[in-house]
Amino acid sequence: MSRIVDIRTSRMRNFIAFQRDPLGLLVEVLQDGDVISLRSGEKRPSYIVNAPEFIHEILVAKEAYFRKGRSSEVLRRTIGDGLLTSEKEEHRRQKKYLTPAFYKERIQAYARIVAEESQRAIESLQDGQPVELHDEMMRLTLSVIAKGMFATDVAERKKELADAVDIAIRESARTLFFPFIVPFGVPTRGHRVHKRAIRTLESVVREAITDARKRPDRYEESLLGLLLDTKGEDGKPITDTEVRDQLMTMLIAGHETTANALVWAWYSLDREPDAAAKFHAEVDAPGQSEGPAFEQYRKLKYTQQIIQETLRLYPPAWTILREAEREVEVLGETFPAGSSFLISPYAAHRNPRVFGDPYAFRPERFAEESAGWPRFAYFPFGGGSRGCIGSQFAMMEAALILAELGRAYRFERTTEAAAIPEPLISLRVKGGLRMRPCRRT
C-alpha cells in the first residue's frame, strides 16, 4: 500500500493557501499522511514530506540523488557559490576546509567574543525604554559574526549592515516563493534595491580581505585567516571570489538565524513565567558567571533547553527544499527525476504523535523525553552532509547571549497580542516585536 496521499484540495487552492500562509498549510496537512502529493503533474511532481523516516532517507541515506535546486539558485544571487549554495563535490570540498573554523577550540574563542559583545549590548539598553527586539538582536549577532569570523569591528556600521541584510533576505524570500524566477539582470525596483544591499555587505567583506592580505597576523585566529591560508588541490590559494562568497554566506546565514531565535526565546519566556523563573535562577546561581565564557555556557543546562525548545517551536530554517536529480526509490516509493520535496521542521516539530502538548513552550521536554523521539522528528539544523556546519556555534552563541542579557534584564512585551511567525528565508516575528528591558536587581 502506497504511503503517498493526494492532497484533498485543488492545485489553485493550494497555491493561494501557500502564498497566504505557508506555515498554516504545512501544519494543516501534517496528519494527512507520510508524504503528501500536491498533484502538480507527472513531469515535475511536488510533495510535502511529513514522516521522519522519509525525511531521513532524503536528507541522509539517499542524499546523493538530490540537490537543493531552486533555493540555491535564489540565494546564490546574494552570497555567491559559498557553502550554503554549492552542490555535490564542490560542497564537499568547501566543507572540508571550513570545518576547522568550528572545532571546539575555535568555539571556545568565539564564546569570549559573544560574552564581550553581549556586555556592550547590555550597556546600550536603557531600563524601561522599549526597543525593537529584532533590531537589537540582529545588531548584536552581527557584531559577534564580524569579530569572530572576520576579526572586524562593525560598531559604526551595524545599522547600515543590518538593514542591508534585511533587504537581501526579504527580496530573496519574495523570489524563492514566486511562481517563476525573474532574471536578476531585469532592472525591477526589487532587484535594484537588492543589488544595493549586496554592495553594502560586500564593501565590508572586501575591506576585510584587503586588510587581511596586508596584516595577516591580525586575522590568523579568524575564519578569514583560515580562508586565506587555504590551498586548493592545485596547491594554490583559493581565490578572493571564493573567500568573498564564504564570508558573505557567514554574514547572512550566521547571524540572522540566531537573532530570530533569540527574539522568539525572549517572547516565549515572557509568556511562560515558570520557565522564566527557572532561567533566572540558573543564570543567577553562585559561580555561574565565573570562569571562561565557554565553561559558563557548558553549565547553562536549562538555558540550553530553552534554546532547543525555541528551535522546536520556531525553527529559523522553517523549510528545506530538495529536488531529485534522477529517478529514486525511497522506502518502496518511486519518484521520477525532477520531483521536488518540501520538508518543514516547523510542521514536523508540532507532531502530537511525537511531542506531548506540542504547542506548549516547555524546555524540560529536552531533559525528559528527547531520547525517545524518532530520528528527524526534531531537526532544527537540517541533517546529512548539508546539516548546518555551525550548529554548535549557534547553540553556544544563543545560550550565552540569553544568559548574559538575562542576568541583567528581563524583557516584557509592550502588547498582549500574540506574535505571528513570518516565514521568509528564516522565521521572523511578523512586524517585529517591541519589548521593554527591565533592569533586574
UniProtKB/TrEMBL annotation:
Keywords: Heme, Iron, Metal-binding, Monooxygenase, Oxidoreductase. The keyword Lipid metabolism does not apply. One of its GO terms (molecular function) is monooxygenase activity. The keyword Oxidoreductase applies. CDD domains: CYP132-like (cd20620). Heme binds at C388. InterPro entries: Cyt_P450 (IPR001128), Cyt_P450_CS (IPR017972), Cyt_P450_E_grp-IV (IPR002403), Cyt_P450_sf (IPR036396), Cytochrome_P450_Monoox (IPR050196). Its cofactor is heme. Belongs to the cytochrome P450 family. PANTHER family: BIFUNCTIONAL ALBAFLAVENONE MONOOXYGENASE_TERPENE SYNTHASE, CYTOCHROME P450 FAMILY 4. This is Cytochrome P450. It comes from Paenibacillus validus. The lineage of its organism: Bacteria, Bacillati, Bacillota, Bacilli, Bacillales.
